[in-house]
Amino acid sequence: MSSGPPTKLVKARADGGPAVRGGRACPVPVPRYNSLIMGSPLLSVEQIQARLTTRVMGQQIHYFASVGSTNDEAKRLAAAGTPEGTLVFAGEQTAGRGRLGRRWNAPPNLCLLMSLVFRPSLPPAQAARLTMLCSIAIAEAIQSQTDLPVGIKWPNDLVVAGHPSSDPRSRAPLSRDLDAAHHRKLAGILTETMVAGTDLTAVVVGMGVNVNVEPAALGPVMTPATSLLAELGRPVDRVSLLLATLKQIESRYGQVAGGQIHDDWRQRLVTLGHQVTVTVSGEQLSGVAEDVNPDGALSVRDLAGNLHLVSAGDVALRTGARTAT
């Protein structure tokens, strides 16, 4: 990781007006939030800077009250030479997206919507290790702030299991034994690379965490959605969660090049040992998710006993179907 001086450079911009998607306004259903949530403070650059303890991650911050996509802004900045660790965050995304072109919808100022710029010394084939890094960091940050056990659904969704409640004893611990019916999506990651020839010049990792939002406001998703508010029965300080995430990313970044990040990522995968259906370019593969390699590819053994290595695709866990590993 490049160290560089801990100078805090800030660029702020506020865009007004309603969210517009696809050339037309798209209203988001607004639930009846309680006064505590509606009165919670907005994130600000000053709040983050005042409590920042990292040397690289978040030392340069770009804030948008409303933006199309934090990833798009981060890629633009990366192309212009912004340093590693540059953070782009927003109160609202009007064209947020996840993997495979899916939309990421969230009401304004209730979630964490952010992107980080990395400039790792890695070949392009190992860029998925940054997804591992950030998914582990978010999971550990959430647990440090809430004690909520968080798992990872291959390759980039963070999920919780059990029954949402303000009583932690009623929630299931992190376990691969729980089938897909118990998984609720809490966060997602979108990793995009910038390559010159055969060299990886930058990696932008976008992260969206459902914090103080009612799940009904998030719209339809493949995995049932949840939020920290829904799981805990109380709001969570978004600044503390953001800072904890940056700290975890920075503390673990040195493990990426050597592949040490893989073991901890694998331990959190709820996908392994389950019957899955993988969709790649319109074709489906069904079998058991057996393992993941150091670069994040998923090993799936099909019904005929053949082993397939899947580096990208959409994975659906089959409810109630599990094989011991």
Protein model, in words:
The chain has 325 residues and is α+β, with helices and mostly antiparallel strands. The chain folds into two domains: 9-267, Bira Bifunctional Protein, Domain 2 (BirA Bifunctional Protein, domain 2); 272-322, SH3 type barrels. 21% of the residues lie in helices and 28% in strands. The strands form three sheets. The protein has an eight-stranded mixed beta sheet, sandwiched between helices. Mean pLDDT is 82; it is low at 1-39.
What's the arrangement of secondary structure elements?
Blueprint lengths: L8 E5 L6 E2 L2 E2 L9 H4 L6 H7 L8 E5 L5 H10 L7 E4 L21 E7 L9 H19 L4 E3 L3 E4 L23 E13 L2 E11 L18 H5 L5 H15 L8 H8 L5 E7 L2 E10 L5 E5 L4 E4 L3 E9 L3
Parallel strand pairs: 1-4, 4-5
Antiparallel strand pairs: 2-3, 5-6, 6-10, 7-8, 8-9, 9-10, 11-12, 11-15, 12-13, 13-14
Helix pairs in contact: 4-6, 4-7
CATH class of the largest domain: Alpha Beta
Computed CA radius of gyration, to the nearest angstrom: 19 Å
**Structure class:** alpha+beta
Outline the biggest β-sheet. Answer: 8 strands, mixed
Q: What fold name stands as the CATH topology of the largest domain?
A: BirA Bifunctional Protein, domain 2
Write the H/E string, N to C.
Answer: EEEHHEHEEHEEEEHHHEEEEE
Identify the strand order in the major beta sheet.
1-4-5-6-10-9-8-7
Q: Please estimate the helix content.
A: 10-25%
**Strand element count:** 15
Number of domains: 2
Strand content is 25-35%
Distance between the termini: 36 Å
Shape: globular
Kindly report the name of the CATH homologous superfamily of the largest domain. Answer: Bira Bifunctional Protein, Domain 2
| CATH architecture grouping of the largest domain | 2-Layer Sandwich
Number of helices: 7
User: pLDDT average, as an integer?
Assistant: 82
Low-confidence runs (pLDDT<50, min 5 residues)? 1-39
